[in-house]
């Protein structure tokens, strides 16, 4: 579904990404992990066409990303931003309906209203529909934004969902619900690409993990192949223990004690 | 994320009743009220003045001018058709144009404190006009010879376009974040035109100074059907063009990157907002001088009333601007009759307390 072929990106002489390639199939949740400044956000921006690169190619559904019109792309790919800064005091309902804007010209159809309402119920924010968005807490705002993003590609046959650190500001329950929701979308044939900081969340929910280090792919594959003591030591410069998840077949990361004093 | 309440599936045919909270509209009564207020304002403003004309007489005079036979007072007919009606039309157009441009510029800059003056439109127009008044150079004299009394307006409009274009080009040259750079460039260019205008004022003779003052305080005193017709195409273009951008301006409130993810062509919307605002504001400064306050405050008041959806804010601002400027102009020409107050003074003098009152009331309600 999403195919990244050997892309590089640089600003002036600083290489932010260098020869990155991977594929994400329909029905797959792909997590991008890595230390701060490893190039995760740049990679996501190249995949969503917020940035364009001269070297390498990004293909979406067997078609080059550059061949899509703005409108075509808005109908299949949705992006949940890392920070949201909504300047005017929109109502929650108005904000979620914005996700439907690519689908109608001036007046939303009954179907658009239905989708917005269902999406808002889905993220558990329906009671807040007629509240002012800017008065909500950070976590609540994030969930409303998710509803908007879901509403955007709710009813398309093959959508792709990009989430940039979606769990920031959410409590434990809503972190897991956020990722379960992303998984639910992949089960209906969508592709989800998620930047995550929490390796345990990545291990538990991702089908495939791309681990970045200084703009290059350090490891790629199933969680068990990527989340190892060695890669974590190399990428994050952190000594960890790995234990088995009590129910699932995935590793869990536990940082070792006293490692900061050992390092120098 | 209530997973039991809803399931993901493709198109369904379930129709929700129109009362659902997803269809919440803030103060739905406000738009019809604005339309009615506008109609009342027009009738009242056309009627009042040194010679009162009743609504019924207005009706008869209009009917007569459309070809129906009606017995009307010839003096009243002449005053209405030649003086009051063009003046009210001019006030409507300028008020609507200034307010809708202000709302669009605030949306574009993602800042409720922005106004059309910010990107140099007004200061460029007034600099050009003041230069023309003071310098009396050969070129201007030739222009005056060619264009008669409209020379000043045309020069002012050219000045507005030139400054807006300059600010936009400089911002584009500076690179990626056009909007922030435009804001800063606008402030810088405004300071420059302010300084140049200051030099001109310093050089001016007493008579020129009176002209400049009149210009910089604004007045609709020069209204005629010709001035109405000369700004009509520009203002009409803005009044039709800007509300079409409402959805894109809503999405811009989410941030530029999110707007482009939802299919907004950022370059095109920036260009359209700037061109339409320059058309509306530039022509209005050209025929009536600088009228402050409307472009900043009306959109603000409308947002307090109808919420943030630009589909209502833009239309509401156009209506509100037309109402307020028409009323203000009626006051300006009746309050110290037979003299006239510059309308810029009146809008600021009356507008500021009203605005502050509403602002404090809103803030206190938000805090409670």
UniProtKB/TrEMBL annotation, chain A:
Any one Gene Ontology molecular-function term assigned to this protein's record: ATP hydrolysis activity
Highest rank taxon of the organism: Bacteria
InterPro entries attached to this UniProt entry: AAA+_ATPase, ABC_transporter-like_ATP-bd, ABC_transporter-like_CS, P-loop_NTPase
UniProt keyword terms in alphabetical order: ATP-binding, Nucleotide-binding, Translocase, Transport
Domain ABC transporter: 2-239
SMART domains referenced in this protein's UniProt entry, alphabetically: AAA
UniProt key word Chloroplast: no
One Pfam family, short name: ABC_tran
Keyword Plastid: no
Function description: Part of the ABC transporter complex HmuTUV involved in hemin import. Responsible for energy coupling to the transport system.
Protein's recorded name: Heme ABC transporter ATP-binding protein
Lineage: Bacteria, Pseudomonadati, Bacteroidota, Cytophagia, Cytophagales
Automatic annotation (TrEMBL), chain B:
Main location: membrane
One term under GO cellular component: plasma membrane
An individual GO BP term: siderophore-iron import into cell
Protein keywords: Cell membrane, Membrane, Transmembrane, Transmembrane helix, Transport
Keyword Transport: yes
Membrane topology: Multi-pass membrane protein
InterPro entries: ABC_BtuC-like (IPR037294), ABC_transptr_permease_BtuC (IPR000522)
Name of the protein in question: Iron ABC transporter permease
Organism of derivation: Spirosoma terrae
């Amino acid at each position: 579904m999403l195919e990244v072929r050997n892309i590089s990106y640089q600003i002036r002489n600083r290489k932010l990404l260098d020869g990155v390639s991977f594929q994400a199939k329909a029905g797959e949740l792909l997590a991008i992990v890595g230390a701060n400044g490893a190039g995760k956000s740049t990679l996501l921006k190249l995949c969503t066409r917020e940035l364009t690169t001269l070297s390498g190619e990004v293909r979406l559904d067997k078609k080059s990303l550059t061949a899509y019109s703005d409108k075509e792309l808005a109908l299949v790919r949705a992006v949940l931003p890392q920070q949201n800064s909504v300047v005017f005091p929109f109502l929650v309902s108005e904000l979620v309906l914005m996700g439907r804007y690519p689908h109608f010209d001036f007046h939303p159809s009954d179907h658009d209203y239905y989708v917005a309402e269902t999406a808002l119920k889905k993220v558990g924010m329906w009671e807040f529909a007629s509240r002012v968005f800017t008065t909500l807490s950070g976590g609540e705002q994030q969930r409303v934004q998710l509803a908007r993003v879901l509403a955007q590609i709710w009813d398309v046959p093959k959508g792709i969902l990009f989430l940039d650190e979606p769990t920031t500001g959410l409590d434990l329950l809503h972190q897991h619900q956020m990722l379960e929701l992303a998984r639910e979308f992949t089960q209906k044939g969508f592709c989800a690409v998620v930047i995550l900081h929490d390796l345990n969340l990545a291990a538990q929910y991702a089908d495939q993990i791309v681990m970045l280090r200084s703009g290059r792919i350090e490891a790629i594959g199933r969680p068990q192949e990527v989340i190892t003591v060695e890669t974590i030591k190399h990428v994050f410069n952190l000594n960890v223990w790995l234990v088995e998840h009590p129910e699932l077949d995935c590793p869990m990361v536990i940082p070792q004690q006293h490692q900061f004093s050992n390092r120098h | 994320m209530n997973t039991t309440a809803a399931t993901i599936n493709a198109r369904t045919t379930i129709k929700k009743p129109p009362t659902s909270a997803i269809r919440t509209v803030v103060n739905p009564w406000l738009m019809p009220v604005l339309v009615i207020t506008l109609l009342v304002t027009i009738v009242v403003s056309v009627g009042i003045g040194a010679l009162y004309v009743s609504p019924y007489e207005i009706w008869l005079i209009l009917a007569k001018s459309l070809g129906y036979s009606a017995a009307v007072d010839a003096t009243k007919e002449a005053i209405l058709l030649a003086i009051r009606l063009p003046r009210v039309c001019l006030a409507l157009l300028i008020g609507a144009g200034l307010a809708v441009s202000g709302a669009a510029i605030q949306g574009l800059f993602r800042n409720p404190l922005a106004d059309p003056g910010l990107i140099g439109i007004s200061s460029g127009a007034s600099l050009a006009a003041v230069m023309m008044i003071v310098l009396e150079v050969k070129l201007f004299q030739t222009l005056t010879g060619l264009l008669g009394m409209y020379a000043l307006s045309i020069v002012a409009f050219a000045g507005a376009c030139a400054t807006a274009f300059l600010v936009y080009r400089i911002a584009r040259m500076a690179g990626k974040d056009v909007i922030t750079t435009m804001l800063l460039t606008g402030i810088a260019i405004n300071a420059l035109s302010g300084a140049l205008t200051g030099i001109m004022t310093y050089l001016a003779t007493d008579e020129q100074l009176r002209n400049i003052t009149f210009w910089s305080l604004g007045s609709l005193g020069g209204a005629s059907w010709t001035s109405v017709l000369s700004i009509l195409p520009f203002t009409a273009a803005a009044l039709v063009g800007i509300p079409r951008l409402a959805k894109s301006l809503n999405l811009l409130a989410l941030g530029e990157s999110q707007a482009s993810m939802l299919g907004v062509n950022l370059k095109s919307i920036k260009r359209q907002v700037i061109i339409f605002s320059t058309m509306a504001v530039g022509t209005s400064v050209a025929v009536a001088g600088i009228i402050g306050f409307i472009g900043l405050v009306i959109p603000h008041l409308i947002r307090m009333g109808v919420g943030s959806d630009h589909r209502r804010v833009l239309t509401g601002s156009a209506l509100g601007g037309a109402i307020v400027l028409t009323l203000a102009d009626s006051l300006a020409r009746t309050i110290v009759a037979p003299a006239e107050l510059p309308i810029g003074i009146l809008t600021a003098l009356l507008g500021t307390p009203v605005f502050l009152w509403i602002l404090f009331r809103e803030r206190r309600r938000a805090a409670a």
